[in-house]
């Protein structure tokens, strides 16, 4: 747990003996808020994530997110600067101080281009994808899976270096399911913690005798790649229309006809989005394929969009 936190005068806070000025709100979700704050001592900007904890289980989950951040010191995983969990009557608030990334999320970039009827160039996609893969490999190498990879959970630095964030859904990479009760528990957990339009097929209808591993992230990675290529995830529109994503993910994906991207990139996309999880490649194989695309892309001298 972090050091004591106090809310002081003139919109300032102190976390782990360092003071920060509140600047403005950045956004909010179902159970959390994100504020922009400025360090008094260093003058740097940070994102302060405040997670509302209604009971001990919520508090446990917030502490889990802190612990997941602390596992990593990697250029493609968002680091945790400081944290604190404070008591507010019968409830708690978890405060996570994170670096502020001015460029916003990958989804922000995709959406801006889509609104201009434009798309990410292949060289930029391959560069970003490579960084995401390296971050995922760091997570998988520690025996964990992200479980909620999506464009809004990838931040982009000015040089397009991606940073994986929102580690609260991370858990052990390998889950052995041996009966129907365990299957239902995993399925219910996934329904709460894994975004539906980026959720792997095996998490919708969990078998009572199966092994679920980190290749759930490979499916989600494919959905992220699809969104970079075509401006939206492959199942975003299905979800928005109210149709069944659970049913849609049981069929092989169809790559839209296009002349923007190489056959190699399209083949890589299809290799990730295989319905049978045991036929999906692991992250090291994906990285090898992405790196094989890099010399081709560099030789094309494409313009950065």
Number of strands: 13
Q: How much strand?
A: 15-25%
Largest sheet features: 7 strands, antiparallel
Helix content range of the residues, please? 25-40%
What structural category characterises the helix and strand content?
alpha+beta
Q: Indicate the CATH architecture of the largest domain.
A: Orthogonal Bundle
Characterize the overall form: globular
Number of helices: 9
Q: Tell me the distance between the termini.
A: 43 Å
Query: What's the CATH C level of the largest domain?
Result: Mainly Alpha
User: What is the element string, with H for helices and E for strands?
Assistant: EEEEEHEEHHEEEEEHEHHHHH
CATH superfamily caption of the largest domain: Transferase(Phosphotransferase) domain 1
Subcellular location: Cytoplasm, Perinuclear region; Membrane
InterPro entries: Kinase-like_dom_sf (IPR011009), Prot_kinase_dom (IPR000719), Ser/Thr-specific_kinases (IPR052239), Ser/Thr_kinase_AS (IPR008271)
Catalytic activity: L-seryl-[protein] + ATP = O-phospho-L-seryl-[protein] + ADP + H(+); L-threonyl-[protein] + ATP = O-phospho-L-threonyl-[protein] + ADP + H(+)
Main location: cytoplasm
